[in-house]
Amino acid sequence: MGIIIDKNTRAIVWGITGTQGSFHTKLMLEYGTKIVAGVTPGKGGTQVLNVPVYDTGEEAQEKHSANAAIIFVPAPFAADATLEALENGIKTVVIITEHIPIKDAINIMARAKEADATIIGPNTPGIITPGESKLGIMPAHIFKPGKVGMVSRSGTLTYEVAASLTRKNLGQSTCLGLGGDPITGLNFIDALKMFERDKHTEAVVLIGEIGGNLEELAAKYISETKYPKPVVAFIAGRSAPPGKRMGHAGAIVMGKAGTAESKIDALRKAGVRVAEKPGDVAELINV
Known about the structure:
Helices cover 33% and strands 23% of the residues.
């Protein structure tokens, strides 16, 4: 059930010997994710939590035939790690690293498009299909298998809304974070299309924030396609002052563009129910 990852996903961790890489590898393994190898140049031949480590992605892929990767490599080197994963045929790459240089991010997305691969992030909490697989840093205990798909620009709000869905016994089909950097691999429309095709998803939660126009484009898509599944949204940053960056690199209002009001208005005109606060999202879902 769910989109992009499932119980058959086999992942390689780039940066597995670092503090964050090893810590979250432990948690992903405990959740049941099939972490088959790690890559850290110079650490080949060692192990982390019984997971074999290789110097290169080519060696890891030759021995383990993974179909996914997760990147914990520091920003200056994250692009090289991602490109190495793509060059070795990996079709799903989750980039946890934040503040990757924009030029590097643009190059990553162009190469991923050529390779017909999916990039989640950068600066994302990752993706989870509850009960099957988790590639990310989210607290797994708040998620429960269910019928609501979630796509979000905010990690923390994802957790808060997911917990409220779980308390209401709705659960989630898949939750994914688009990422907070200005350049990301997926957008809301990409996720809406995937959730539309997923027979286990009966409703979609969209969590947006100020900055950019991804939410307005999603509203236009929902309206023009008469999107067949109910969508509930929450937009963060209603009281954000113009010109001040709020947490994420992409969360900034410039002039009249990217305000919470413009996004909420566009979504409501498209028939989307917009929550006043995160805790209201679960109450607006009727499936």
